[in-house]
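Example 3.2
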Amino acid sequence: MTFASYQTMAIPEGGTSNIAPEGSLNVQVRTNNGPVSVSADGTTTTHGVQGLNTAEFGSPVRDGILSSARTKTGSPIMGDIKGDDLIRVQGYEMQVSTAEQLGMISRDASGRYVEVDGGVEAASREPEQATVEAPEVAFASPHAEQNLTELVSATTAGNQIAAMQELINGGEVSTQTLNRAASEAGREPSQMAESLELVKAAFKAQADASVAAQGVEDADALWAWARANRPNDLKQAMNNHGSMRDPRGYAGIAQEYVASVADRDPSSVLNAEFGGGISARMAGKEVVLSIPGRGEMSYRSALKAGFIKVSGL
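Structure, written as tokens:
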């Protein structure tokens, strides 16, 4: 912005002149910061507000994150702050209602938004991971459970780990490990082998039951597929099962087995009876389902969305 300059000089009393008189000229120019008065000597004075904040437009909030509040169209707040108004928190813009959900702000007794002491810091911290205890699932057979208890108490941890790793990697306990464990337990190797087979069968029954809950009836087919396609996942699940008595790791393997059936055996999906008016067709190399009210989608997508449920694999 530019101003015109005026030259002043002394004027005899009673004289007249078109030159600007001394003192304020009462010339005002309005800017974004308020009206500006221009004096005869060229100096300027700004009157009115020097900036805008919510406190000057009716909001009681003068500091904190709520002091940055503005409407969703970017205008200053007139009156109380509303849930769909916007605020800035640590450089990010969010709705007031979102900040409330995150615990940064809350409503007082009169219903107005107020900042929660320490709320921004608490919402910014990484959530603490809750420790979930692995469930120890007992065998369905009390006799098998008793055998496992006796084996654990009669042998060292080293032999137990060796036997478990041999079962995971090869399906059998070596003669050397069996004889060593039998010696520790004071049993004949044949007796130790009998107890191990009983415990081994009990573990497999638990694993089979775990995948049956995912719609897999032919567990042996799943184990063969997992050994070929998900060997590391299978070994990890078996290790957790054997060491922590936790069979939950098999569920993820079973879910992938069910989800990939259309890739392995498309005809089984094409000939399946879905019910509910659902039909299946091939689209290139992919099985696509037509679901009334949902349109068409891949078999895997329909399964993930919960539109279909598989059983009897």
